[in-house]
């Protein structure tokens, strides 16, 4: 009987030790998650500020900050601004798709093809 009690005490002690280790690990993960959420929030705030600056900058120079086909704001990651020889601007992928369908500028209807597309940097 005393042997069983020693075994149970040892098992309880082992479980308590494991519980403490798990609590420490959980605290560390919670802290890491908090740090990552702060980084994400900072990134989103900076992205929003940059986007607002870009729109304001373009509008102050009489430029359209949005694609005339899909009406999305241009960016430097996925929706590059591109122009045709006629001077009209669009999202690069939008104008490529449009030219494949009809071979004309969607604004002025002048003939155009993919080689007329120039990315605006």
Note down, in words, how this protein is organized.
- It is a single chain.
- By secondary structure, the chain is mainly alpha-helical.
- It has two domains: about 1-60; about 65-120, Herpes Virus-1 (2-Layer Sandwich), CATH 3.30.40.10.
- The protein has two helices and three strands.
- The protein has helices spanning about 1-60, 90-100, and strands at about 80-85, 90, 120.
- The chain has a three-stranded antiparallel beta sheet with strand order 2-1-3.
- The longest helix has about 60 residues, at about 1-60.
- It is rod-shaped.
- The termini are far apart.
- This is Oidioi.mRNA.OKI2018_I69.chr2.g4599.t1.cds.
- Keywords: Coiled coil, Metal-binding, Zinc, Zinc-finger.
- It comes from Oikopleura dioica.
- It holds the Pfam family zf-RING_2.
- InterPro entries: RFWD3, Znf_RING, Znf_RING/FYVE/PHD.
In short:
The chain is mainly alpha-helical.
Key words describing this protein structure:
single chain, 121 residues, mainly alpha, Herpes Virus-1, 2 domains, 2 helices, 58% helix, 7% strand
Residues in β-strands, percent:
5-15%
Helical proportion, percent range: 55-70%
Counting copies of identical and different chains, the oligomeric state is single chain
The number of strands is: 3
Radius of gyration: 30 Å
């Amino acid at each position: 009987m005393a042997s069983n009690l020693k075994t149970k005490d040892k098992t309880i002690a082992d479980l308590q030790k494991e519980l403490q280790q798990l609590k420490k690990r959980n605290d560390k993960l919670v802290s890491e998650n908090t740090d990552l959420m702060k980084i994400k929030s900072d990134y989103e705030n900076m992205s929003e500020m940059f986007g607002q600056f870009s729109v304001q900058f373009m509008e102050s120079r009489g430029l359209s900050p949005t694609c005339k086909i899909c009406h999305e704001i241009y960016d430097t990651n996925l929706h590059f601004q591109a122009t045709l020889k006629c001077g009209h601007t669009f999202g690069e992928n939008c104008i490529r798709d449009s030219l494949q369908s009809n071979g004309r500028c969607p604004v002025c209807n002048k003939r155009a093809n993919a080689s007329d597309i120039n990315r605006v940097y």
